[in-house]
C-alpha cells in the first residue's frame, strides 16, 4: 500500500509514477483494443440479459439472480468466485471474484455493484436498444459498469496480460442503500481495499461538453437528525421569559445558522424534510415526519432530517463541530439535539490518484483520445470506492457514459463501453507489469 501522511496525501507513488509518460501502444495492447471492439455485440447482449432481471436493492432474490448470471462470466476468465451472504444486515449479498498472479505485481481492485434503485414496483423494467443507445434500469448505474469490467478482463485474457495480474473484483449488492451496520456490510470491501495498491470504480463516466473527465475524488454521504423542544402554552405568551420561543423558532434559528455560518467549498448540508407542532415526530421509517397544533399554541416539538456531504474527513469533523455549536446556542425556553449518521466516507483527492489519472491520460494520448480533465468532486455522489480510498490510490468513473441515472429513462451510450473497456484493460495491464513499493 502507498505511504500516506495524516492529511491523506501520498508521499511516494511508485505505482503511479514509475512508467514513462508516453509509452506507445504495444502489440499486446493492440490485441486488447481489437478484442473489445470484436466483443461489442456480445457485451450488449450481456447488458440486456442482466438489465432485464430486476435487482432493486430490496429485491434480494433479483440481486442474487443477477449474481448467479455473472459468476460463470468470471469463472471463464480463471477467477475464483464467491457469493458473500449479507442476510445479517438485511441485504442479498456481494459477488467477489479473485485472480492471483505474480505476488510482486500491482494489486488491483475493481469495484461495481449489482443492485439498482428500481424495485419490482417501478414502471421502468426493460432494456430497449435504439442503435447505439440503450435504455433500461441500471444500464449505466451500474450494470453497464459491470459489462465494462468483464469486457476489459476478456481483452486482457486475449492479449495474455491477465495471467500475471493480481485482481479482485468486488460487486456489492447494496450500493444504493448499504446494509446497516456499515462496518459489517462493507467489511469485505474494506479488507480488499487494504490488500489493494490501486482501486478502480466502474460507475458511470463523467462527461462535460463532450469531453470525458477523470474522477479522482468523490464527496461523502452522511445524514443528520435535528430535534428541538420548547415550553408549550398560550401563544400570547410567546417570547416571554416564562414561555420562551417554542420549538419551531428554535428549529428555524438553527437551520438558518447552518445556512449562514457553515458555507465553504465542497460542503453541502441539505434539509430534506421537517415538521413542527404540538406534537411533532418522525415517522417509523425516518423518511417522513408529521406535526399538528393550533395557531394559538406555542409548539412543543420540531424535527428535521438532512444530509451532509464533504470532500475530506477533516471537513466532516469541522462541519460536525460547527453544526453542534450552532445547535447548542439555544433560544430562551428551548432545547435542541442533533444526531449524525455517518454512511459513505469521502474519497479525498490525493497526489497518488491524480498520478493515476496522468497514467490514464498517457494511454489516451497513445490511443488518440482527448486528455481527461479532473471532474469537480462536488458534482459526483458517494460511491463504494470511498470505503477503500484511505488504503489505495483510486480512479472512479471508469464505467460507461449515459444520462438519467436513478430516473425512469436511464440511458447509456453503448459506444462508450468500447473506449472505457480499452482504457481499463491497457491501464491494468501496464500496472500489472510493475512491481510497486509497499510499506
UniProtKB/TrEMBL annotation:
GO molecular function term, any single one: hydrolase activity
Keyword Metal-binding recorded: yes
Signal peptide: 1-23
Keywords of this entry: Hydrolase, Metal-binding, Signal, Zinc
Domain of life according to the entry: Bacteria
Cofactor: Zn(2+)
Keyword Ion transport (UniProt): no
Chain ranges of the Peptidase M20 dimerisation domain: 216-333
Annotated protein name in UniProt: M20 family peptidase
Organism: Aurantiacibacter zhengii
Amino acid at each position: 500500500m502507498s505511504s500516506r501522511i495524516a492529511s491523506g496525501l501520498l508521499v511516494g507513488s511508485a505505482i503511479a509514477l514509475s512508467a514513462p509518460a508516453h509509452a506507445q501502444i504495444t502489440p499486446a495492447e493492440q490485441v486488447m483494443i481489437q478484442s473489445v471492439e470484436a466483443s461489442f455485440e456480445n457485451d450488449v447482449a450481456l447488458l440486456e440479459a442482466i438489465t432485464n432481471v430486476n435487482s432493486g436493492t430490496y429485491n434480494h432474490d433479483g440481486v442474487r439472480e443477477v449474481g448467479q448470471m455473472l459468476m460463470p462470466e468470471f469463472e471463464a476468465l480463471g477467477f475464483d468466485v464467491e457469493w458473500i451472504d449479507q442476510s445479517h444486515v438485511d441485504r442479498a449479498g456481494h459477488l467477489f471474484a479473485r485472480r492471483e498472479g505474480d505476488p510482486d505485481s500491482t494489486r488491483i481492485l475493481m469495484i461495481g455493484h449489482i443492485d439498482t434503485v428500481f424495485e419490482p414496483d417501478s414502471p421502468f423494467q426493460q432494456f430497449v436498444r435504439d442503435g447505439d443507445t440503450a435504455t433500461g434500469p441500471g444500464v449505466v448505474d451500474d450494470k453497464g459498469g459491470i459489462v465494462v469490467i468483464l469486457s476489459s478482463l476478456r481483452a486482457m485474457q486475449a492479449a495474455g496480460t491477465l495471467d500475471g495480474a493480481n485482481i479482485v473484483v468486488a460487486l456489492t449488492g447494496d450500493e444504493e442503500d448499504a446494509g446497516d451496520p456499515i462496518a459489517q456490510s462493507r467489511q469485505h470491501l474494506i479488507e480488499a481495499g487494504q490488500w489493494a495498491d490501486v482501486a478502480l470504480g466502474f460507475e458511470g463516466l463523467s462527461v462535460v461538453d463532450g469531453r470525458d473527465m477523470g474522477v479522482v475524488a468523490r464527496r461523502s454521504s452522511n445524514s443528520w437528525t435535528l430535534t428541538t423542544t420548547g415550553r408549550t402554552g398560550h401563544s400570547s405568551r410567546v417570547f416571554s421569559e416564562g414561555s420562551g420561543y417554542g420549538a419551531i423558532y428554535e428549529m428555524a434559528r438553527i437551520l438558518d445558522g447552518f445556512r449562514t455560518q457553515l458555507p465553504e467549498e465542497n460542503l453541502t448540508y441539505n434539509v430534506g424534510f421537517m415538521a413542527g407542532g404540538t406534537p411533532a415526530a418522525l415517522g417509523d421509517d425516518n423518511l417522513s415526519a408529521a406535526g399538528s397544533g393550533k395557531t394559538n399554541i406555542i409548539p412543543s416539538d420540531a424535527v428535521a432530517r438532512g444530509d451532509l456531504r464533504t470532500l475530506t474527513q477533516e471537513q466532516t469533523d469541522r462541519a460536525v463541530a460547527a453544526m453542534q455549536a450552532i445547535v447548542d446556542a439555544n433560544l430562551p425556553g428551548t432545547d435542541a439535539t442533533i444526531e449524525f449518521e455517518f454512511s459513505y466516507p469521502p474519497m479525498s483527492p490525493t497526489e497518488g490518484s491524480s498520478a493515476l489519472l496522468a497514467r490514464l491520460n498517457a494511454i489516451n494520448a497513445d490511443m488518440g483520445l482527448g486528455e481527461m480533465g479532473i471532474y469537480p468532486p462536488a458534482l459526483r455522489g458517494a460511491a463504494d470506492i470511498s470505503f477503500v480510498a484511505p488504503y489505495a490510490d483510486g480512479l472512479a468513473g471508469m464505467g460507461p457514459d449515459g444520462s438519467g441515472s436513478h430516473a425512469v429513462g436511464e440511458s447509456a451510450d453503448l459506444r462508450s463501453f468500447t473506449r472505457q473497456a480499452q482504457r481499463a484493460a491497457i491501464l491494468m495491464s501496464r500496472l500489472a507489469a510493475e512491481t510497486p513499493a509497499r510499506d
